[in-house]
Amino acid sequence: MSQQEQGIYEFGAFRLDVGEGVLLREGHPVSLQWKTFETLCVLVKRSGHLVTRDELMDELWHDTFVEENNLAQHIRALRKALGEGENGSVFIETVPRRGYRFLPEVRVVNNENDADAALFVAPQTPQQSASWLKPFAVVTVLVLFIVGVVGWNSLNRRRNNQIAPSAALTLQTMQVERLTAKGKVYDPAISPDGKFLAYTVRDGAKQSLWLRDLATKSETQLIPPTQMMYGTLSFAPDGGSLYFWGREGGKDGAAYQIPLLGGAARKIAEGLRSGLGLSPDGKQLAYIRFDGNQYILSVCNVDGSSERIVTTRSGKFSYYTWGLAPAWSPDGNRLVVSAGELKDEKQGDAQERYFVEVNVADGREKRLASPSWSSTDMAVWLPDGSGLIVIAQERRGAPYQLWHLSYTDGAAQRITNDLNDYSKVSLTADGETLVASQETHNANIWILPDADASRARRITHVTSDTEGFTRWTPDGRLIFHSNEGGLTNLWVMDADGGNRRQLTFEESPVNSPQVTPDGRHILFTSARNGVSHIWQVEIDGRNPQPVTDGDGERLLDLTPDGRWLIYAGIKHWTWTLWKRPIEGGEAVRLSEQLYESAEVSPDGKQVVFGYYDKRAADGTPWKRAIMPFDGSAPPKLLDLPPALAQCDWSTDGQSLYLLKKGEPMNVWQYSLDGKLRTQATDFPAEAPGYIEHFAWSPDGKQLAVTRIVKLSDAILISDFR
After folding, report:
1. Which of 77, 300, 642, 650 is within CB 3.0–4.6 Å of 250 for a Cys-Cys bond?
2. How far apart are CA 668 and CA 643, in angstroms?
3. Nearest by Cα to 318 from 287, 285, 353
4. What is the dihedral of CA 446, 452, 454, 456, to 10 degrees?
5. In a domain, 50, yes or no
6. Structural domain tally of the chain?
7. Where among 145, 166, 197 does a domain terminate?
């Protein structure tokens, strides 16, 4: 293989190492899909010269038929990854009706340790194939993981929302150890001295709490499996007890403490939406409540006494609470919380996420300097207060990774850089070792004849991606989501999984497809312009057209006659339930309350929807109501168990199918008066995964379900600073 085939190329701030399958920007790895990386290699090798579409298609998909839209999608992804448009920069020129030309001056590095580089003049003849890149695919994954760990480089950094370049480390520098291999381990926490690991095990609908001695590998079950959900574990500073959040059913959670040498868990406080943050001195807890109108950040003593409100957020400002907890600064004077903000009323669902720092004494809040991450998750402080270890998502659809965030200037450096998701991070007292949960998941589509799980057959076979949210067409095909290629788009296939074809090529995720009753169109939700709107395409994916253009809309359902669409609309930062003729016309608000989905009855006369009842006396605020579609009567509460987002009507309109909270392995059928009719599916409790979505075929004889299998284990990382 020639040096140019294996070569290292430089252009501007970028360094392309073909042999290692890595693109660096100022030393920082740039995440690319493999096919997008191959596209870049072909263009760079022929820098300054036209590469026709046919040549690119032949190089990238040799002997494989794909539509030309696939090439356009990878060119778009490449332009975005290179930052095209920043300061007027242009990397790839489109030659209309012919192909593309890579514009920057490219230099080939003759030797990896040689600072001198020669101008690379690309050959005039096209390359024969990009297949020579494929043997390095496995190497790419390993290199990206290793390169992601970095040291400090914060000097001369400003609060400019930039990610700092990272220095490559070797396996001898960073130590990574898998602590568990159960596939069911969540919420790990390491003791201050680094000798013990606490974690939860999720087994079906039940969870248990465990303690492991890291030296002897011996395990002790602190709480046996129950229907409770546990999270945000924290060791007391002396290592003698464990604090955690627990929730039963659809209620908000509570704070608990359990001694590690034996004894029952003690409840400290109730009605908590977030997890617990334990102060460095072990004397106070911080948490967030939600009263239906505002998020309330509060602190109390560890015995539950002296609770007081620190600050609140409401309207377009919110705190993120699910599975998260406020992080105390080492001096105990400040809290860092993951927060969100709806940008403005005219772009109602265009949301920004970031970390805020709150003064515990007076509630003053300020935004932490950080990159413009797509999403922020958990944070923990380093013991010296110089920075934080955070979990964040760099861009929409990317995995959640571990980062080091400098407190002084907001410079961020990766700790991990792989295809896994990370959640829950915990540090030892000296800040030299961390543990986190490393998660992988896949979602596949299954077909159940007559809802019989014993005859279920899987018709998609992804191992690390998501395929689901199925809708049947009148002729018995399936429209579904797939994030194949890294972006969530709509696909179509036969009911046996054959004849798969991509329908949309959006750069922002496509959600909630609905097929019109005549089978001619598909409606869906897309935020292609930064705000969620409802769009329509023909059944073969052609001719995309916007259907709504308000402040933000999310498609929920269509009426059986295909005349009306039901959607969630946002106004003044609040989601409400609306209906509107598909062909255009005045929108009508059905309800000021909306939390989850909405489904129209088969006769089109009623609509069932989920909402949040902040005044619920039974402690389960997630409710479902029914009302006439014409709005002639107010909503009526249904006596149904707390359910997940989806609920669907039976063909006769006399009952509802739903996924119960806490028992998502099966679909259940209830009458409208709340009586259980039947368990519609019978997946055994030991079957892996859970159902996220289901859809009945038009003839009612087949049930398509999306089953998610999620694996999670605890890993330990040391020498990461």
Report:
1. 642
2. 10
3. 353
4. -20
5. yes
6. 2
7. 145
Question: Could you give the count of Cα atoms lying within 13 Å of 493 in the half-sphere of its Cβ?
Answer: 19
Q: How far apart are CA 467 and CA 485, in angstroms?
A: 12
Copy the structure tokens of residue 511: 């959600």
Which residue shows structure tokens 């995309």?
544
Query: Is residue 137 one of the residues assigned to a domain?
Result: yes
pTM for this model (two decimals): 0.69
Distance CA 668, CA 680 (A): 5
CATH number at 126 reads 1.10.10.10
CA distances from 431 to 58, 395, 434 (A): 51, 28, 7
Buried/exposed 123-151: b ≥16 CB within 10 Å, e otherwise: eeebbeebeebeebeeebeebbbbbbbbe
Domain that holds residue 487: 441-709
Summary count for the chain: helices (H), strands (E): 5, 56
The domain boundary, picked from 90, 119, 145, lies at: 145
- The Cα-based distances of 111 to 116, 119, 173 in angstroms read 8, 14, 24
Instruction: Kindly list the averaged pLDDT for each block of 10 residues, start to end, along the chain of length 721.
Output: 63 87 83 83 92 87 63 82 78 84 88 42 35 37 36 34 42 78 94 97 88 95 93 95 88 92 92 94 96 92 96 92 93 96 60 92 95 92 96 86 94 89 94 94 90 89 78 96 82 94 86 94 87 92 91 91 92 81 91 81 94 69 88 90 79 90 80 90 79 91 91 93 79
The CA-atom distances, in angstroms, between 38 and each of 30, 123, 131 are 14, 18, 9
Residue 72 lies in a domain: yes
What's the 3-state SS for 60-93? HCCCCCCCCHHHHHHHHHHHHHHCCCHHHCCCEE
- Cβ–Cβ under 8 Å, residues 385 and 329: yes
Where residue 496 sits, what CATH number does that domain have?
A: 2.120.10.30
With tokens 């168990």, the residue in question is 641
Question: Is residue 548 assigned to a domain?
Answer: yes
